[in-house]
Amino acid sequence: MSEQLPEITRPAGTFDWVKEHRRLYLRSGGRQGHIMDLTGAGGHPFGTHCLIRYKGRKSGKTMIQGLSYGDIGGEVVICASKGGADESPHWYHNILAAETVDFQIATQAFRATWREPAGADRDKVWAFMVDSYPFYGVYQTRTERVIPLIAMKPIEPIAVFSEADLD
């Protein structure tokens, strides 16, 4: 018998919450916004978030996105879930078009190389992410696509992000 995953619905005002979370993280220099209670979304009370900064592959604009992350074997892993939508989020396509990506965890930021785990490695990383953030398992049931994972490996420290970084 398979385990029944909880149904997760997108709460009203989700986009406003995402923008407010990013604003809090940026304005505090990472002192706030890293740890959040995710029980309302089917997660754990001690959910961790990073920021990623990337350039739009078409627009050339700098964008910053807050995401849940896992720390696995010296790599920071993010999921391109888009809540289980049938298409991947824009940030995922923009990272694929770049050699590096910038990320910030709390008050530290890094430039990083990235890779997409595959095969048995992906299975192991996916299991870790679903255990850490159960809502990813629910999101996968909503779509036929395999939700991509991005593993980022820091190569150099950089200045923390700010609202001035946004185009």
How would you describe the overall organization of this protein?
Helix content is 25%, strand content 30%. The chain is an alpha+beta fold. The longest helix has 14 residues, at 14-27. It is globular, with a radius of gyration of 15 Å. The relative contact order is 0.21.
In brief, what are we looking at here?
The chain is an alpha+beta fold.
Return residue spans where pLDDT drops below 50 for at least 5 consecutive residues.
1-13
CATH architecture: Roll
Strand count, sense and barrel status of the largest sheet are:
8 strands, antiparallel
Order of helices and strands: HEEEEEHEEHHE
Going by CATH, the homologous superfamily would be: Electron Transport, Fmn-binding Protein, Chain A
Distance between the termini: 50 Å
- Rough shape? globular
Number of domains: 1
- Structural class comes to alpha+beta
| CATH structural class | Mainly Beta
CATH topology: Pnp Oxidase, Chain A
Percent of residues in helical segments? 25-40%
Rg from alpha-carbon coordinates: 15 Å
How large is the share of residues in beta strands? Answer: 25-35%
Put simply, the count of helices is 4
Mean of residue pLDDT? 89
What is the number of strand segments? 8
Topology:
Layout: H1 14-27, E1 35-36, E2 47-55, E3 62-68, E4 70-72, E5 75-79, H2 90-96, E6 100-105, E7 108-115, H3 119-132, H4 135-141, E8 149-158
Antiparallel strand pairs: 1-2, 2-3, 2-6, 4-5, 5-8, 6-7, 7-8
